[in-house]
Design brief:
The protein has 245 residues and is mainly α. The protein contains ten helices and no strands.
Length: 245
């Protein structure tokens, strides 16, 4: 029997990929109807949903690039596609309906592939650490949403995804390292509160994030990632099929 953490995380990722498929379908419908404001909301929702599983698509780089490549990922002679191409179309210029045409089938591919995901507790915790590191490296500096300049969407969603990974391993972690688990839980609570204080992230342009806010948020992300990394290391022995939480 798989550990409880593995089961919980699989359910969470299943919910995230299903939400992504729904958001992409809604995006295509609104684009077809010429509803640009609604399509912008859909694109941001899809981007937030994708943040929950972006780092789990590393073994499927072709599908990942189809869904979420940035313009810097495109090689000479290749076509720019995915959510960021649609972002460009909606906020700057381009044919969003055309760029969205193949997105829904690829979203369904991601949903199918990740429905088979089986990660041991330590790997789930490490995924959360990687998500937090991505926030500091990409989202907080404003390097993801080049056209809408709404990277707060990614900051919020990816931190929530990391917290979700922690939630999956928390019951086991309480048994293995109770004091450290309480510390990490407290850091996530502080971090989530910091994000909440930003306000509605879909209305928060990158230019509105002061350097002081970015630094404070980055430091709390670092502290949380450090604690979660230490906690994840204690879960290494509990990744066998016989382990339970």
């Amino acid at each position: 029997m798989a550990p409880l953490a593995t089961k919980l995380f699989r359910i969470d990722i299943g919910n995230a990929t299903a939400a992504f498929v729904t958001a992409v379908g809604r995006l295509q419908s609104d684009l077809a109807a010429g509803q640009v404001p609604a399509a912008k909301e859909d694109e941001l929702a899809a981007q937030g949903d994708y943040d929950y599983f972006r780092l789990l698509e590393t073994d499927n780089s072709v599908n990942a690039s189809t869904l979420d490549e940035t313009i810097t990922d495109v090689q000479p002679g290749q076509t720019f596609g995915g959510l960021h191409a649609i972002e460009r179309d909606l906020w700057v210029s381009g044919d969003a309906l055309s760029d969205a045409s193949g997105l829904e089938p690829q979203a369904q591919v991601a949903e199918f592939i990740l429905s088979r995901l089986t990660l041991p507790p330590e790997a789930i915790g490490t995924t959360g650490v990687d998500e937090l590191n991505w926030v500091n490296d990409v989202a907080i500096p404003g390097r993801e949403e080049w056209y809408s300049h709404l990277d707060a969407v990614d900051i919020s969603a990816t931190i929530a995804a990391a917290d979700q990974a922690f939630d999956a391993v928390e019951p086991l972690a309480h048994q293995v390292a109770p004091s450290l688990t309480v510390v990490v839980a407290g850091r996530f609570a502080t971090l989530e509160n910091d994000v909440a204080e930003l306000g509605p992230v879909t209305d928060l342009p990158d230019s509105a994030l002061s350097s002081t806010t970015r630094l404070s948020l980055s430091q709390q992300v670092d502290a949380t990632a450090d604690g979660l990394a230490q906690l994840s290391a204690t879960l290494v022995p509990y990744g066998t099929s016989a382990a339970s939480s």
